[in-house]
Amino acid sequence: MEKIAETLTNFLLESGEIAEEDYQIYKYGFTVMLEKGIFLALCLGFAISLNKEIISILFFFIFIPLRSFAGGLHLDHYITCLILSVLSYLFVLLMSNILISPEVTILISVFALMCISLTYPVENINRKVDDKEKKVFEKKFCRCIIGNYFLVFLLFFLQKSLMLLTCAMTFLVITATMILGKIKNKYKNIMV
């Protein structure tokens, strides 16, 4: 990824499209774009091949905001991050095939959302957050949690068992990555 991002950034620099002082910003932007693009392409491919497009959309609808505001495990290398991310995504897609009663599923969802709330926040050494940002993130996190409780109970009352199960499995993945993130931070002596 780094080499491709470097090549793209060098091309822009040599063609006069960007200034020298913006080089690192563009290189970082290209790196992130390529990494996210590969992940999304893999996920799209799996969703289409498994005929789970709606489940996939629901996964990202829940996962992206919660993970963004709550934090979680950050791995040191792109390839390990990609593998864990794809495996987590596949776990949710494949678990949507199991049969669990809606009553059990809603209990799993409530338990996982409580765990997420109790584990919040999981900070990242690469993204320091000041007190003002913490307050903004906390408000957004609370809105996400409340919105997810609402979504879970709505799906339960509408008897949308498959979507409810998808929510529960996504919450479990987020819970697991948050706990692993806390453990990693403690191991690396990053006090939160």
From TrEMBL:
- For this UniProt record, give its keywords in alphabetical order, as a comma-separated list: Cell membrane, Hydrolase, Membrane, Protease, Quorum sensing, Transmembrane, Transmembrane helix
Molecular-function GO term, any one: peptidase activity
Q: Which residues cross the membrane?
A: 38-66, 78-98, 104-120, 141-157, 163-181
Q: Which InterPro entries match?
A: AgrB
For the biological process aspect of GO, one term held by this record is: quorum sensing
Annotated Gene Ontology cellular components are: membrane
Q: Name one Pfam family in it.
A: AgrB
What this protein is called in its record is: Accessory gene regulator B family protein
Origin species, per record, is Candidatus Eisenbergiella merdavium
